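User: Hey, quick favor. My workstation is busy. Could you predict this chain's structure for me?
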Amino acid sequence: MWVRDDVPAPNVYVAHTAPQFRIKIPSVSAATYGLVSGAVPSAADGRAHWVSDQITAKPGGGVWTWANLNAIEELGVPVGFHPTGQASLRDDIARRYLDTPNGRVIGQAGRNPVELMMAFGSMAAGGVLERHPRLRCAFLEGTCGWLPWYLWRLDEAWEKFGPGSEIQIAHTPSQYFFRQCVIATDADEKPLRQVIEAIGDDNIVVSTDYPHSDGLFPTAIEEFVHLEGVTDKSKSKILWDNCARLYNLAAS
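Assistant: No problem, here it is.
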């Protein structure tokens, strides 16, 4: 289930309708700005039916409350972060290039990775994952080639400026990633081999971006399977094992 507008009603509908079926319905609760509280299903209503909660990649301001995160943590489902779009937020990074020649190309290339970088930084260096050690996070559809560098960069920034920050964390930001997070590779992402060399393959899943126009449907998985320099064992983990662990499908 994917919802962008009027989020609470569809989320509640699935939570109350799913018990009528004999099989579990894997559903994604989607949250938009100003509607987060209504978008997060209660543990009593949703535990047996939700596999994830989805939100755009800006976990700050008045949107996120500890109550929301407590509810998600109680449900035992991960939070999936997806980059914003130019129409979603006035401060979306791609909007800076709307009046630039070929601005759409520039914004499209930069928006998704940069928005996810800042989202992970907010969750890890901002103390959210410290306070919620059972919360699982997935950073989706923003590629993964930037991650090894950014983990190093964020750790370095914390080492220099963290001791004087208002909220203290017990671990480096990169340690929170390995403990609680995964990142999605694009199906045709050639730098994946270097990412695996740098951080391993335990925290990587795959995204096909269906049905967006820049996705690879219907050949996405075929292209992933034929990526050079990535072992079959790693491909198997990324295609299934890591995804099943993220969404707790093994226990379904």
